Each structure stands twice: as C-alpha cells, then as structure tokens.
Amino acid sequence: MVVLRKLPGMPGWPAALGLRLPQKFLFLLFLSGLLTLCFGALFLLPDSSRFKRLFLPRRATASASSSSSASSSSASSSSTRDTDLPRSPPAAAEPRHASPAAPRRLREKLRTAARMAGPPARTAPGSRQQVQGGESRAQPASAAPPARETRAPFRFDYERFRRSLRHPVRGGRSGEDPETRARRMKIKEMMKFAWDNYKQYALGKNGELRPLTKNGHIGNMFGGLRGATVIDALDTLYIMELEEEFQEAKQWVEKSFDLNVNGEASLFEVNIRYIGGLLATYYLTGEEVFKSKALELGEKLLPAFNTPTGIPRGVINLGSGMSWSWGWASAGSSILAEFGTLHLEFLHLSELSGNPVFAEKVRNIRRVLSRVEKPQGLYPNFLSPVTGSWVQHHVSIGGLGDSFYEYLIKSWLMSDKKDSEAKKMYDDALEAIEKHLVKKSAGGLTYIAEWRGGILDHKMGHLACFSGGMIALGAQHSPGDRRQRHMELAAEITSTCHESYARSDTKLGPEAFRFDAGSEATATRLSERYYILRPEVVESYMYLWRLTHQPKYRHWGWEVVQALEKYCRVEAGFSGIRDVYTTTPTHDNMQQSFFLAETLKYLYLLFCEDDVLSLEDWVFNTEAHPLPINHTDLKAAGQP
C-alpha cells in the first residue's frame, strides 16, 4: 500500500508516491508513453474524427468533415460512373484488365444504396445530425443541402424506331404471281416441319435436333446455354407469320431460358446466334424480354476483352468470366472472323442500354487493326491478343476470315452511311482481294483463292460463297465504273458457287471445291464432300435477286429447295449429308440451328417482295438476324 506523506527536502507529488530516484524516472517514462499512445489513437485511428471534434477549433472540424465528405462523394461518384451510362466517355475510362462488371440490376441496387447511405440513424425521422463545439443536436431536414441530381434510367424509344422504318416489316404482299407465292408457302411449310420436330424431340433439352435418333444435341460452343434453335428460329418464325410457333418459342424464352450457366462458350457463336437472335426479335416485336436477355448475355461476354490489346479471346466461361484462345489457334491467337464479327451486335447493345462500353470494345478492335501493318493490304486470319501483331500470314475469304469483311460494309450501311472508317477499310480490303486473290479458272469460272504467305491455294470453301452477295451489296454505293465491275464480280462468284451445286449428283454443294489438277468447282478430297445445310449460296442468290431481279436467281434457289426436300428431309426433320456426289447419301443426324435462322429465311425472302425486311431498313448479321439501320437518334425524348 502506497502511503501519502510529505518527506522533508523532497518535491511534492512524486515524493508522495514514495518512489526512489530510478523509480521516478521509470514512472515518468511510462506516463509519457501512455499519454502519447492515447493521443495518437485519438487522432490516427480510422474512426477518430469524432474525437478530433473535442480538441480542434470549430473551423478546423468543419474543414476536416467537408474534406472527408468530399472524398467519400468522389469515391461514390467514381464507383457509379459507368452505370450512369455517359454517352461519350474517354477511351481510357475502363482499364482493360478490370474485373467483370456485376450484373446491371445488381449494380443499380448498389448505386441506390450508396446514394441513400448516411450517418447512423440516431435522430428522429426528418432530421439530421450537426456537430457544433463538440455537441450533437438534431436539425430539421429542411436545412439539408439539396440532393445530388440523378440521371433518369435510359429508355430506348421503340415506338419512334418503328415509325422510322420506311417499309412494313412483313411487307405489303401486293402484286405477286401465284407460282412465287406457292413456292414461298412451300418454304414456310419446311420451316414449320423443322420447328415442330425440334419442339417435339429437343425443346427445353438441348440446343439442336438429331432427327434420325429423335433427340437433342448440345454442342460445345454454347457454354451450357440451351435453346440455340429456339433463339435462332425466333425471327424466322415471326417473318413467316407462324404465329403459334412464335408464341411457343417466346414462352420458352420467358420461362426456361437460363443464363446462369458455367461452361465454355465460343464468343463468336454466342454473339451471332444468341445475342443476334434476341436483338432482332426485340426490334421486330418490341417485347422487352428479348432485349433484357440480350443485354444480360452481352455483359457476360465483356471479360473476354480483358487482354493487353483489348482484342478478345475466342473462348469464355460464362460463369467465371475466364477466357482463353482456342487450342488449335496458332500461338494462342484470336481469329479474324471471330473478333471481327462483333461490331453490329455490340453497337446495338449500347444503343438499347445506353451503356457505351459495348461500342467502345468494338471500336478499340478497329483501332488495333488500323495500326497493324497489312501484308499486301490483306488481313491475315490470326492475330495475337497480347501483342496485337499477326501470328501467321494465312488469308481466307472463307472460314476464319469471312464475316470480318461482311461486317465492314454492313457497319457502314447500318450507320446510315456515316461510318466512313468502315467503308474505307472495306474498300481497301476488297481492292487487295481483287488484286491478289481473285482468279479465273481455265474453264472461265471466277473464284477467290486462299493466300498462305504469298502462295495461293486454289480452293474456295462453301463459307466463301457469301461473298457474291456482299460484293453486290457494297457495289450499290460505289461510283460508276467500280460499281459495274463489282456487280460483275459478284455475279461471277455467285455463278461459280452455283456450279459447285450443279456439278454434284444431289445438286447440293460440297464444303469446299477446288480448281486444280483439271478439276473445277468440285471437291477432290473425301473430307470436303459433305453438306451440312449451309446457307451461304442461297444468301448470295437472295441479294443478287433483290439487286438485279434476274429470274435465274429464283430458279437456282428453287433447285436448292427441291434438293433439300429430296436428300435432306427425313422423318423427324432435316439432316445434313456426308457426300453430295451420291444419290444415296448417308445423313449426319444433325439439324443445324442455322438451317432455321439462315437457309430457310434466305430462301423465303428470295420469293418475297423486296419490302419484306427491306434492305433500306435492315442489315442481316452473319446468322441472318435482321438489325435495323440507324436512321435517327432513338433515345426517349427528354434524355440527355
């Protein structure tokens, strides 16, 4: 027990503790350390601002609080800036390696919560806390500063969009002859037959129909997404006025189309089939479910762009957001026809959502391509997403390259001829193709060869047969002499592709055909003799018919209809065949979703009047899903 007493000759209070000199020193050292620790805690701990108010003058307190509030407000503003959807953000606003964005609905909830967050609710409703001289008191809410103005949710003006169309979506149905109508009705019956069997044996189970075994099949391209045939068929069912079947498909999308999957998907295939099909059906019908599904799925694709260059990788896990290149792609490269076939759909995702991130992603692809050197003015098929350089010099207008060129001219048309960059890229590319790849066989057939580091491979794939239609479409907007030259080139290429059909026993074309060793427009390898219900030849027939009205294109199209009925129609749908050069072919047991999306749609349009999905109002994505030409600004009135 410490005895408090005064000792003679000793100072007062330390002596009162009865301590010797060394003890006094230790005690003072301990006391000073304790005081330092306490005051340091008051001023340095994260929640120390409430204690600072006890010691700092009032002005300093107010200044500190204001600084803290401004910092918090700035952080909140920064975290919600991309969800506020500015129209023209700087290109560097989003880091290339940023984490995948949260689903849009979740981001909106977080933003709302951030705006509503405030000090602890210890005061009565309708009042707020104010600190003065270390005391807290309630102040009426009327004294609060005005709330920060928030931007109204973006809304696309669908009714205004429909009024901007120059022709009815399904046309006027006037002045057609009975034979043309009968042929169109036959194609409509084929579509109904293909759909009914898919619905019976595969709807809700898998992506595509196996018509021989009468079951479903889901490929490894869709990342666990089901219903590829449903989404691909929607706009075809609508255009053909198969109303009951369209409602069946719509109901499946509303109730059963689940986007919460965890699988490896092709960025390209999900974009052109699923997003393209959903966007097109929204524009045709105005049904919100198609728009919301397209936007949600579009956000799931964004992590694929998180590369050093912004060039997306080809494969993405739709659950985790991880992406990588195809194992067969040279040196981990991305494929020209894949990353170059996003522009149409992603611009429409930004148009409908008000979120510029989608458009910025594809515009960055353009910037990368504009910087890289093009050998002989050509675009090779493999580009490194890490360095932005070509990996090898293989050029093809067919597989691996095809739809990149298609999307250049269609981007220009979709912009109502305002995207001059796309038009120049298309013109320059076509000039290089004409100079280096377009050849004529000994028998007078014009074809587009493939280019491998300067060495030509004299073959043409079925996929390359779309180019006749593309060149004809682009020729309509070229000056006089070039227009005529390009129309002649388009007609010659389309005629060559027709020859590849006419020279087979089934009157259906092979996967690839060659011009060497005395062979012309025929497959010379067993691995190239199959036909999988592809649409590219009839696609060119449709464009050439609409742009020239030469009867031969309808005649050639009807030959395809007859061949499909004779060799590909089976008991429960349509199937590809393994050899077009035999009249007793073996079926491959696959009704491809693009048969309903493209082949039957293009055949149907071939026998329609020109105002059905008029080329003045629509461009078709590479899966034949119609997307509207941007004739006007379609934000809802009153929006910034």
From TrEMBL:
Compartments where found: Endomembrane system
Quote the pathway field.
Protein modification; protein glycosylation
- Into which EC class is this enzyme placed? hydrolase
Q: Where are the transmembrane segments?
A: 25-45
Q: Is Calcium found in the keyword set? A: yes
Q: How does it sit in the membrane?
A: Single-pass type II membrane protein
This one is known as alpha-1,2-Mannosidase
The organism encoding this protein is Geospiza parvula (Small tree-finch)
